[in-house]
Amino acid sequence: MRLFIALLLGTFLVIIGWQSNLFATDTQLPPQDNYADYMWQVHQNERPIPTHILTQAPTENDGVSAEMVTYGTLGREAIAGYLASPQNSDRPLPGIIVIHEWWGLNDNIKAMTRKIAELGYTALAVDMYGGEAAETPEKARELVTEARNNRDRLRENLTLAYEYLDQEKNVPTIASIGWCFGGSLSLQTALLFPKTLDAAVIYYGGELETNPEVLKALEMPILGIFGELDQRPSPETVKKFEMALQSLNKEVDVYIYPNANHAFANPSGERYNPEAAADAWEKTQQFFSDHLR
Fold first, then answer.
1. Is the bond preceding residue 221 a cis peptide, omega within 30 degrees?
2. What is the band of 279 on the pLDDT scale with cuts at 50, 70, 90?
3. What residues are paired with 49 via a beta bridge?
């Protein structure tokens, strides 16, 4: 009889516990891919329509030559990027790896690449999506998730871009610049080439490394451009990144723009902040001039 009562009580407790777990929503929610989900929430009402950036960028009569080039192969797949440089240059120019945001290598990024080249650089806009570009937030989330799930391929792609500029174009110095997803990869490029990359620019890269043990290998100057209202990365994370580099006596300049959100430098987006974007671009130009010439 006691055994029966004990079994009955145990069964009752198990049922109560199961019901508690069933209705405890904090334990039932599955883990999310925070980066891809945050990017989708930020951009869900947008489309990557080229706007002001194309009118601000150089025109076809800007003295810039640009074309799609194959800068390497991954497996058996040729990887093509957009290469732009001033026409009729009589010497090798500094090289810049241009890394697209989560939409992919689209017209906005090509226009920015021409804009960089007009300043006197050989600019290579890489393709991290294998020839695809997104026109909807849903497609962008699919592409960025697939890319993030194959990080070895991302690193190999960046390595091919660096080697192309170094060996094929014989550039004297190399820097990286990226926005959003590309901002994170600009830092990854620095970590791939901690002693030989000459400069790195990070525009609101959502995956900032804050561990001094990882960052201590970096020897290049770094420029970080971020928005106060952004949450990926948040201002707190940006400060940790900056303080980690400063504690290592690294050369780093970080700017967090008031009332600016994620992707504030992209004029095709809802959070475009023309004043902050213009100031950030001025700082970017000066940074490249100081460290690549």
1. no
2. very high
3. none
Burial class (CB in 10 A: 0-12, 13-18, 19+), 144: buried
71, two tokens: 């800068």
3-state secondary structure of 146: helix
Q: Sort residue 122 into left (φ over 0), alpha (ψ -120 to 50) or beta.
A: beta
pTM, to two decimals: 0.86
Mean per-residue pLDDT for 9-14? 44
CA distances from 245 to 53, 181, 192, 250 (A): 32, 21, 17, 5
Of 77, 70, 75, 115, which Cα lies nearest the Cα of 96? Answer: 115
Helices (H), the chain: 2-23, 25-28, 34-43, 52-56, 107-118, 137-148, 151-163, 181-192, 212-215, 235-247, 274-292
pLDDT of 264 over the 80 cut:
yes
Can you read off the two tokens belonging to residue 179?
Answer: 């926005």
- The mean pLDDT value for 280-284 works out to 98
> If DSSP codes are grouped into helix, strand and coil, which group holds residue 33?
coil
